[in-house]
């Protein structure tokens, strides 16, 4: 029996290794991938190029030639009675993105937490990672279902658009579909094989499968991002839109890289916020103190993942916007200074809400610690700073006024508040907001610790950090004030030193914390579960705000193309080729978020349904977390 | 070292660092952020 088992295990291992080698060798071989993509998809004449691709003279062969972007009229768009094409695609595409982002993000931090469990030999991390993955499993089916529905809707409602996109990205779409096999293989073996591989000592193999989940998910995202980026900033095509044959040129357009980075980081932050909401829901609904402690800890871990993603996210967004400006100044100006500018005010309000709820959660977290009371006096001044920064952050430059109000003020801008409506003030405000949030983090991090020893850092670490914060805030504010006095095109360059100042504080502050609290003693055990109910609602606010923000920005990213299917190449002549009003867009996003939340509740319900009995067994095995009751 | 003195020294050191950083970054970006006239 044992011999047969060993043979089976070895066979399975060999198959996994071979498959993984095949997949990774192909993915990792940049030259191979590039060559594959650079193979001409369509037959072209010798020495040909653009002329050959565009040749319209009668060539007596039956080979397929890439089509130019068609010129459509309203009557060319199929209509299904009772269905608004744009609304249908909008809802389904956004829901697909919500679930897609979630299921790409969760395996990233699940893998990291599992690794922490292996290195620290603490089984609680492994159980938590497994539970996060359980929450995400239903999400995979929902993401794929909405993706399939989206494809159908696009084919049915925008057939010429799909024909054109297939002529450019056909090969990519096939690879994308094939990657789902890889993703499914890794996801199912990773999740369902978890306990079995733990018991049989195959943890390394399990971690390897986890890498496979992440690699295949990442490739899926990169491929899909290329279609989105192409629609905004097309590349690899002739002037009439005909594909030139170089698939890599079509994929790697000017916005592809920034979009990849922004979505990768945003996915992590977003995935963390959804799992934090799951944990918050469990904290609120359980009556068992041990379970409450367990889910409070899970909620904090998810929150930490969210913040780790949230802090660098604005800068990835700045890069994306910078590249948009670089590609088309008109697009950039419409985005931030024209029709869509007010959407960024709404975005500012949401981001402010995110930071307020994050800081609030951290302040409530002081209640878990025995030494948190020492720092509670810092909360009111931090709150004031955050609120002032938030107010500056969302103050608009122009006001929506009637003609009468306009003549009373005398200008489109308020004489005082107008100063806060420009990037000089906003960059300053957001950097201060980040510093204040990091300060809240540091306070929570040290609330349960006491530095021990006579070393320099133990005695002077806090004083050094106070000097660091004052210098950083002074630098950021000085740069902000100075930026009012230089031309706008130069002013944007000052955001870089401001960001670098913030990053310096994050890095230096963390290093000093490590040095200060080396060998520190705990003031007392962490009282997991000892959190007020309102703190869990702060986590709900995080998840819902994030979702709404993603929906809003998704609309902006899509709407900025205005009356183009593919910007400046393939015109949108459907009945919906207009920019809707702000209230309409906001209502649409709200509707989509409501549908999403309903489906998320279904997603949360699944693991509860599946594991009622298993729960008690797991909690029995785990070393108990100290509860706060 | 007296804590207040430590704060002042730290403030001066990091202040100098940020000043240096601002000037380096303007050169890196190729922008005349701080004109010398």
Written account of the structure:
The complex is a heterodimer of chains A (629) and B (37). With 629 residues, chain A is mainly alpha-helical. Chain A is built from 23 helices and four strands. Chain A has helices at 2-28, 30-38, 50-54, 85-120, 123-157, 159-192, 194-199, 203-232, 247-251, 256-285, 289-310, 313-327, 329-336, 341-365, 379-394, 403-409, 423-447, 456-482, 488-491, 495-516, 533-559, 582-610, 612-621; strands at residues 449-450, 521-522, 564-566, 570-571. The radius of gyration of chain A is 27 Å and the shape is globular. Chain B is mainly alpha-helical. Chain B is built from one helix and no strands. Chain B has one helix spanning 3-29. The mean pLDDT of chain B is 81. The A-B interface holds A 460, 463-468, 470-472, 474-475, 479, 486, 490, 493-494, 496-497, 500-501, 504, 508 and B 1, 3-4, 6-15, 17-19, 21-22, 25-26, 29, 31-33.
List its salient traits:
heterodimer; A: about 625 residues; mainly alpha; two-stranded antiparallel ribbon; 4 strands; about 70% helix; globular; B: mainly alpha; about 0% strand
Report the mean per-residue pLDDT of chain B as an integer: 81
Give a short account of the largest sheet of chain A: 2 strands, antiparallel
% residues in beta strands of chain A: under 5%
* Residue windows where pLDDT falls under 50 for at least 5 positions of chain B: none
Termini Cα gap of chain B: 41 Å
Shape assignment of chain A:
globular
- Share of residues in helices of chain A: over 70%
Largest sheet of chain B, described in full? none
> How large, in whole angstroms, is the Cα Rg of chain B?
14 Å
Largest beta sheet: strand ordering of chain A: 1-2
Q: Report the β-strand fraction of chain B as a percent range.
A: under 5%
The largest inter-chain interface, given as chain pair and residues per side, is: A-B, 23 and 24 residues
Residue runs with pLDDT of under 50 for 5 or more positions of chain A:
39-49, 52-58
- Total number of beta strands of chain A: 4
The structural class of chain A is mainly alpha
Question: How would you spell out the order of helices and strands of chain B?
Answer: H
Number of helices of chain A: 23
The general outline of chain B is rod-shaped
């Amino acid at each position: 029996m044992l011999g047969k088992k060993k043979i089976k295990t070895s066979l399975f291992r060999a198959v996994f290794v071979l498959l993984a080698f095949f997949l990774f060798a192909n993915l990792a071989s940049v030259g191979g991938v590039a060559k594959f993509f650079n193979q001409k998809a369509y037959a072209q004449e010798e020495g040909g190029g653009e002329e050959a691709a565009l040749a319209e003279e009668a060539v007596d062969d039956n080979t397929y030639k890439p089509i130019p972007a068609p010129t459509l009229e309203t009557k060319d768009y199929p209509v299904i009675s009772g269905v608004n094409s744009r609304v249908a695609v909008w809802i389904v595409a956004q829901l697909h993105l919500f679930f897609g982002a979630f299921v790409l993000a969760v395996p990233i931090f699940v893998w990291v937490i599992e690794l922490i469990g292996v290195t620290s030999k603490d089984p609680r991390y492994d159980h938590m990672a497994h539970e996060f993955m359980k929450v995400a499993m239903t999400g995979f089916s929902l993401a794929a279902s909405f993706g399939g529905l989206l494809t159908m809707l696009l084919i049915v409602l925008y057939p010429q658009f799909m024909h054109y996109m297939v002529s450019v990205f056909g090969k990519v779409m096939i690879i994308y579909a094939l990657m789902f096999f890889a993703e499914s293989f890794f996801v199912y073996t990773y999740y369902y094989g978890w306990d079995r591989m733990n018991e049989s000592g195959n943890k390394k193999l399990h971690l390897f499968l986890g890498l496979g989940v992440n690699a295949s998910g990442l490739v899926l995202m990169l491929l899909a991002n290329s279609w989105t980026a192409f629609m905004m900033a097309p590349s690899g095509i002739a002037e009439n839109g005909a594909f030139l044959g170089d698939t890599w040129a079509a994929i790697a357009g000017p916005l592809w890289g920034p979009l990849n980075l922004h979505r990768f980081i945003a996915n992590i932050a977003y995935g963390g916020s959804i799992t934090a909401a799951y944990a918050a829901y469990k904290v609120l609904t359980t009556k068992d103190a041990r379970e409450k402690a367990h889910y409070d800890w899970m909620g904090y871990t998810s929150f930490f993942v969210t913040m780790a993603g949230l802090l660098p996210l604005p800068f990835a967004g700045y890069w994306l916007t910078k590249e948009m400006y670089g590609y088309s100044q008109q697009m950039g100006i419409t985005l931030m200074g024209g029709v869509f500018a007010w959407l960024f005010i709404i975005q500012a309000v949401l981001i402010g809400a995110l930071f307020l709820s994050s800081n609030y959660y951290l302040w409530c977290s002081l209640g878990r610690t025995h030494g948190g009371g020492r720092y509670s006096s810092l909360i009111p001044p931090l709150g004031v700073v955050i609120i002032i920064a938030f107010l500056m952050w969302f103050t608009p430059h122009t006001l929506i006024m009637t003609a009468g109000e306009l003549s009373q003020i005398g200008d489109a801008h308020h004489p005082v508040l107008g100063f806060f409506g420009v990037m000089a003030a906003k960059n300053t405000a957001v950097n201060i907001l980040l510093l204040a949030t990091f300060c809240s983090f540091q306070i929570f991090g040290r609330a349960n610790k006491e530095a021990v020893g006579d070393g320099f850092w133990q005695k002077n670490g806090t004083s050094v950090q106070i000097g660091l914060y004052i210098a950083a805030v002074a630098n950021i504010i000085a740069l902000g004030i100075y930026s009012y006095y230089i031309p706008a095109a130069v002013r944007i360059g000052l955001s870089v030193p401001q960001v670098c100042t913030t990053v310096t504080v994050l890095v230096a502050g963390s290093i000093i914390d490590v040095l200060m609290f080396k060998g520190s003693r705990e003031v007392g055990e962490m009282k997991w579960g000892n959190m007020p109910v309102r703190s869990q609602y702060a986590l709900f606010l995080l998840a819902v705000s994030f979702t709404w923000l993603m929906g809003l920005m998704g609309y902006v990213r899509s709407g900025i193309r205005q009356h183009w299917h593919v910007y400046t190449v393939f015109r949108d002549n459907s009945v919906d080729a207009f920019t809707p009003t702000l209230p309409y867009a906001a209502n649409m996003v709200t509707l989509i978020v409501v549908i999403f939340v309903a489906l998320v509740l279904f997603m949360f319900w699944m693991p509860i349904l599946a594991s009622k009995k298993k729960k008690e067994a797991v909690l029995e095995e785990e070393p108990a977390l100290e509860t706060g009751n | 070292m007296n804590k207040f003195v430590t704060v002042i020294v730290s403030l001066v050191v990091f202040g100098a660092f940020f000043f240096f950083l601002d000037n380096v970054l303007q050169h890196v970006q190729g922008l005349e952020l701080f004109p010398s006239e």
